[in-house]
Amino acid sequence: MPDARTLNDQAPDHAPYDALLLLSFGGPEAPGDVVPFLENVTRGRGIPKERLAEVGKHYFLFGGVSPINEQNRELLAALRKDFAEAGLGLPVYWGNRNWSPYLVDTLREMVEDGHRRIAVLATSAYAGYSGCRQYRENLADAIDQLIGEGLPEPKVDVLRRFYNHPGFVGPMVEATLAALADLPAVVRDGAHLAFTTHSIPLAMAESSGAPEDPARGTPGGAYVAQHLDVARLIVSAVAEADGVFGRPWELVYQSRSGAPHIPWLEPDICDHLEALREADAPAAVMVPIGFVSDHMEVKYDLDTEAVAKAAELGLPVARAATVGADQRFAAAVRELLLERAATERGETPERCAVGSLGPSHDLCARTCCPNPRAPRPAAAEL
């Protein structure tokens, strides 16, 4: 996409937006935060504290601190730096769904600062209830609370899914090549690529996306189709870069947390590593395309649990880095913001996307990625 500056070097036009909200999941930052954080995540499911403490053992292995908040601070700084260097005079705020700084508190601050038209970047790249609609439900809840407090109602627009933007895919290609380079030379060319993402219930995966979404009707719905498209892009680019064509790869899953009797997406990454060992694969690279940053589900499920499994199997393994606060990703966010702003002004901007699925929609349909329990109001939809 062309540089955001105009030909006469004026500041890029971000109207009608007067602020950007970085909206993330959140995570605990001290041992005493772990169970309250998990209570926020699982609210309404009736899970006892004793069980939550058991679930939280992964966090306690890291001192009760999830890396996600610090990584969000880094991304926040990267966005502000990119915006400033591009001449984009738009303030950037940060709020979380499940931990401080809470979404409702940040949105209140934005409204009190005078902002009324807010663009939102949700740090989830793909279609699906947990990665899209639930964020929009939380936005609707927060707006309702502010209205109940007598504050003006802000209008929020969520930027489109960024899974196939070059600013997301490019850094993942580079990270995959770096991980391959970390393997012993004798096994590098034969290494399998295991593209990992969060497992979700099969029914939720099949209902992901909107009825008119071109990814609908493919095995797994939009959630799986979008991940497969990214994986194919990375496989092709890696082959062009290192000259190893036909490298085996597969989309696999991690971080399952549901009841055993409910079908979830498979195979699990550890099961996949066992299958690779049985097939005499020389090595594997885990590529976490489903995650924006190296948060707990990457640090534990991949760097701890899967690496331990690979060591047990005698299978050389490396893990590619996530996009994090890469300057190309920050620039992609700016481009998505300016694209949406131009669309809101009635213009027809270039919509940058790579792969076979094309750019995703700006507004979600009411039937998009439905709540698996019961319908709830959601912001930023048709």
Would you spell out the secondary-structure blueprint of this structure?
Elements: E1 19-24, H1 34-41, H2 49-55, H3 57-60, H4 68-85, E2 92-96, H5 103-112, E3 117-122, H6 129-148, E4 155-158, H7 166-182, H8 185-188, E5 192-198, H9 202-206, H10 221-242, E6 249-254, H11 269-278, E7 284-287, H12 296-299, H13 301-313, E8 317-319, H14 327-344
Parallel strand pairs: 1-2, 1-3, 3-4, 5-6, 5-7, 7-8
Question: Could you describe the 3D structure shown?
Answer:
42% of the residues lie in helices and 11% in strands. The chain is globular and about 65 Å long. The two termini are 27 Å apart. By secondary structure, the chain is of the alpha/beta class. The strands form two sheets. A four-stranded parallel β-sheet has the order 2-1-3-4, with helices on both faces. Mean pLDDT is 93; it is low at 1-8. Helix 5 (103-112) packs across helix 6, helix 7 (166-182) crosses helix 10 and helix 11 (269-278) packs parallel to helix 13 (301-313). It has two domains: 19-162 and 325-344, Rossmann fold; 166-319, 3-Layer(aba) Sandwich (Rossmann fold). The chain has helices at residues 34-41, 49-55, 57-60, 68-85, 103-112, 129-148, 166-182, 185-188, 202-206, 221-242, 269-278, 296-299, 301-313, 327-344; strands spanning 19-24, 92-96, 117-122, 155-158, 192-198, 249-254, 284-287, 317-319.
